[in-house]
Design goal:
With about 425 residues, the chain is mainly β. The chain has three domains: about 5-20 and about 35-125, no CATH class; about 130-170 and about 320-425, no CATH class; about 205-315, no CATH class. It is built from six helices and 25 strands. The chain has helices spanning about 55-70, 85-90, 95-100, 105-115, 115-125, 150-155; strands at about 5, 130-135, 145-150, 165, 180, 185-190, 195-200, 205, 215-225, 230-245, 245-255, 265, 275-285, 285-290, 300-305, 310-315, 325-330, 335-340, 345-350, 360-365, 380-385, 390-395, 395-400, 405-410, 420-425. The strands form six sheets. The chain has a five-stranded antiparallel beta sheet, with no helix packed on it. A four-stranded antiparallel beta sheet has the order 4-3-2-25. The longest helix is centred in the N-terminal third of the chain and has 14 residues, at about 55-70.
Length: about 425
């Protein structure tokens, strides 16, 4: 495996045997898979109640109680104890930042929080902990910076809360495209290699290099295979050759499964398909691309790659006028299409049940807020529970309230415009295997 980085991890060598293996592993073509594992105390000496982890901790509590009641000179009562199962439930609902800090409380907490089974439970318990990551080119000094914004702040606060991320690579003068996001892990292309990064826990890993001098690099995509509990990066290369004087092109596809040290070739991408947007979108165990049927046709289709079977399927599009779909995306964990049906608005279509043609619905119609080009870049990034839509329009970010038709400028200044934006789920999932 290629080298990886683990930044900010507490230097405690305690290992975890805190979790029992999952008792069931049922493959579901769904938006999220649930964890059936049972959490048990981190060590055989743990009695089921949480005791004060240290005398220092007890002293802090004592001083706090004394400061709040100066007239009280008696020794404070002993700290209450809680069942271990309740401790797990409480911790699994907390933000990642708090959990990273709580690893230093005691060895049993560090063992629990650093356990992969707990990371999965935390992921499924914190379904609303989403963040927006944006890359900007700063003016002085000129360099690319990565900022993270809690989506709760984006939709509810007048001034959006922001935090600059510690980018794991030294290169700050070139933009690295974000290929995709899945379960808190970002897949990023550094032109010479691909790496996976979880900004919440500041861990990253580089994937093995893949070079083919006879082929032209096209793009990468990233997703998660629920059936094997594995992350997969899909690489696309165009290979051209001549047969009987005719120039032939095919798209070679290779897959890297996280935890292995090589790429393996799978079935070529359907030969008559040409990418409209080569960065595929992950949803429900599949990666999806909007493609042209051939080089001479204006008709488009959606090609899906099932990450379990590693086979392709064509997804039927909704019936609408013009079939003028410009991009695909993911909203509310569902496959979406964005289309320009006229010069004044963008329609957002959502497939409520993946693979079911009859489940396509027109979710919103977003009007233009200014004079735009004939083919403007209008891309919905996220939809809140109260139907507010986070939009990237050209190089600016807005929130559109679909209920009253109003727009809010996020007022992100001191930049030369957004160059890359992605919504990711805050998680403890590590990209390092």
């Amino acid at each position: 495996m290629a080298p990886s980085s683990d930044i900010g991890e507490p230097n405690d060598a305690a290992s975890s045997n805190s979790l029992m293996e999952d008792t069931t592993s049922t493959k579901k073509r769904c938006l999220n898979s649930s964890s059936n594992g049972t959490l048990t105390p981190p060590s055989s000496s743990f009695t089921g109640t949480l005791k004060p982890p240290s005398s220092t901790y007890h002293s802090i509590v004592t001083l706090t109680l004394q400061s709040s009641s100066r007239d009280s000179l008696h020794t404070p009562p002993p700290l209450p104890t809680l069942p271990f199962e309740l401790i797990v439930e409480i911790l699994s609902k907390l933000p990642v930042k708090s959990l990273i800090q709580f690893q230093c409380v005691c060895k049993s907490w560090k063992s629990l929080i650093s356990d992969p089974k707990f990371a999965k439970k935390h992921l499924h318990m914190t379904t609303k902990h989403h963040h927006l990551i944006s890359a900007f080119a700063s003016s002085v000094p000129y360099e690319f910076i990565h900022m993270s914004y809690p989506l709760s702040s984006v939709f509810t606060e007048v001034t959006t809360t922001a935090m600059q991320l510690e980018y794991p690579l030294m290169n700050r003068y070139r933009f690295d495209p974000i290929v995709g996001s899945c379960r808190g892990i970002l897949c990023i292309l550094d032109y010479s290699f691909v790496f996976l990064w979880n900004p919440s826990i500041r861990k990253f890993t580089k994937l093995p290099s893949f070079e083919d001098s006879s082929s032209h690099m096209l793009d990468f995509s990233f997703g998660y295979d629920h059936s094997s509990d594995s992350y997969k990066v899909v690489a696309f290369y165009i290979h051209e050759f001549v047969i009987n004087g005719n120039r032939v092109m095919k798209i070679i596809v290779k897959v890297h499964t996280l935890g292995t040290n090589s790429w393996r070739r799978i079935q070529d991408f359907p030969s008559r398909s040409f990418f409209e947007d080569s960065s595929g979108k992950f949803v429900c165990g599949t990666i999806n691309w909007l493609t042209y049927r051939d080089r001479t046709s204006s008709l488009k289709t959606i090609i899906s790659l099932d990450l379990e079977t590693e086979s392709y399927l064509e997804i039927v599009q909704p019936n609408s006028e013009g079939n003028n779909y410009s991009r695909i995306g993911v909203l509310r964990d569902c496959l979406c299409l964005f289309s320009r049906s006229s010069d004044t608005f963008t329609d957002i279509w959502l497939m409520k049940e993946y693979g079911n043609k009859e489940s396509w619905i027109k979710l919103f119609r977003v009007p233009d807020i200014r004079d735009l080009d004939s083919f403007p870049y209008v891309y919905p990034l996220y939809v809140s529970e109260d139907d507010q839509v986070l939009l990237q329009i050209e190089s600016e970010l807005f929130v559109y309230n679909s209920r009253d038709g109003t727009f809010k400028d996020l007022n992100i200044r001191n930049t030369n415009g957004v160059t890359g934006t992605t919504v990711y789920h805050e998680s403890l999932i590590s990209p390092c295997f």
